[in-house]
Amino acid sequence: MLIWIALIIVPMLFGLYAQMRVSSAYNKNVQIPSRGRITGAEAAEAVMRSAGVTGVEIVRVPGQLTDHYDPIHRRLALSEMNYHGTSLAALGVAAHEAGHAIQHKVGYSMMTLRQTLVPATQIAAGVSNFVLIAGIFLISTAIGGKLLTLGAIALGVICLFQLVTLPVEFDASRRARQQLVSLGVIDRDEMPGVSETLNAAALTYVAAFVASLGSLLHILLLLSGRKEE
Fold first, then answer.
1. Strand order in the sheet with 75-79
2. Is 185 helix (H, G, I), strand (E, B) or coil?
3. Rounded distance, CA 56 to CA 64, Å?
4. Angle subtended at Cα 227 by Cα 221 and Cα 228, rounded to the nearest 5 degrees
5. pTM of the entire structure?
6. What does 47-62 look like in DSSP terms, one character per residue?
7. Biggest alpha carbon distance in the chain?
8. Active site positions, annotated
9. What angle is formed at CA 8 by the lines to CA 6 and CA 10, rounded to 5 degrees?
10. What residues contact 188, with CB distance under 8 A and at least 6 apart?
């Protein structure tokens, strides 16, 4: 029971905390306008231009915090509030995504590895829940053990992807902070609001990895228990 709480409940609570933290930090700093009144789209463009990144389209996408960089189509997508917004949160998120575009240009190794893992991770995410639920339901049978093993492999792939994602996200935030100040997009004393937003967002990636790792360890314990019977 204690092991189940440690591997499943604690990571779940950590994930909920991370989501609340990023929501709180973003909602707070999206209300604080930057002195320069530069929009998120303009900031992303400035950051990429200074790094020599060309040919990347900046587009608006619906939703909140749906911002992302698509290296395949070379497209930087910003949510409506961050595309037009001039807040510290908007500039931080926009510069972070521009940081991914810079990583793509310079061939940042961890980003390259992450992209290599995408196909396998998509397959693993698609089958993991089904095989794990079926494996737990049939745990006393031979097929149940095979399904749990398959599920453990799928979770292992997901964990690896999320582990590789961590340095990619932290590095993009580091690049964002450096560029925003060096380009004069924000003043140095405005950086705490940007950092608070980016640090909270990074915490969600840590929480996702911890949750997947906890699930993987739980399944491995179940498999170990079957072998001892």
1. 57-61, 75-79, 68-70
2. coil
3. 22
4. 90
5. 0.90
6. HHHHTT--SPEEEEES
7. 67
8. 97
9. 55
10. 181
Count CB-CB contacts under 10 A for residue 176. 28
**Residue 34 in contact with residue 88, Cβ under 8 Å?**
yes
**Separation in Å, CA 68 to CA 18, 22, 91, 129, 216:** 19, 16, 14, 25, 27
The parent domain of residue 222 ranges over 2-228
When divided into structural domains, the chain yields a total of 1
Q: What is the pLDDT of residue 10?
A: 85
List of residues 6+ apart from 148 with CB closer than 8 A? 131, 132, 135, 136, 139, 219, 222, 223, 226
Amino acid, res. 103: Q
Query: Which residues, given as ranges, of the chain have pLDDT below 70?
Result: 1-2, 4, 226-229
